[in-house]
Amino acid sequence: MTNITDIFFDLDHTLWDFERNSALAFEKILLKNEVDLNITDFLKIYVPLNESYWKLYREDKITKEDLRFKRISETFEALNYKSSTQLIEKLADDYILHLPDNNHLFEDAISTLDYLAEKYRLHIITNGFEEVQHLKMKNAQIDHYFETVTTSENAGVKKPHPIIFEKALKKANTENVKSVMIGDNLEADIEGAEKIGMKTIYFTPNYLEHSSRTAINTLKKLTTIF
């Protein structure tokens, strides 16, 4: 990682513990809306469905509105839970409203950002919804670490499209050869950044290594790389 001046992070699943925070949000809104379902049963169906719908969203095969509605409606269908369109729309809105209420970060996120911020300029590139990403960062008290934030909605395209990375580099006033992208999604974060010549680090908490790329399973390991 020589000659690096700028480090770009993905937010969800990389710094911000999305699954943990999402589960807490659903626990709150299911209770609030009197949905009589066990949260564990709900999440067992919802989590993989959400991942599959996000893949379709990244590929521009569904709209943001379809993603928000169908990931909940199909979960209810799989659990044989009778609901109305109005209830699903209310849950979809409440989820976005309450998602930033809990802001657990991955272990050593703060100490690692403290270390890196002394030596590099830090940035965010995220496919997450514009209206909640900035709020997540603010509530988690990490917004001050990042000089720029590039979201897919303000870039007009989603990772792994090269344009979002190019716009992020331009916004940061830096170059691909001086930059590294750190993220948990092999397709969106790693392959996307590599296609425009950026170095990458694959954050993969469940695996020890990756055969063809620099990979870490804890954020703390970044302090030994940089």
Automatic annotation (TrEMBL):
Keyword Ligase: no
Name of the protein in its database record: Hydrolase of the HAD superfamily
Any Pfam family hit: HAD_2
PANTHER family the record matches: PTHR47478, PYRIMIDINE 5'-NUCLEOTIDASE YJJG (PTHR47478:SF1)
Organism of derivation: Mesonia maritima
UniProt keyword terms in alphabetical order: Hydrolase
The organism's place on the tree of life at top rank: Bacteria
NCBIfam families (alphabetical): HAD-SF-IA-v1 (TIGR01549), YjjG_YfnB (TIGR02254)
The keyword Hydrolase is annotated on this UniProt entry: yes
Single annotated GO MF: hydrolase activity
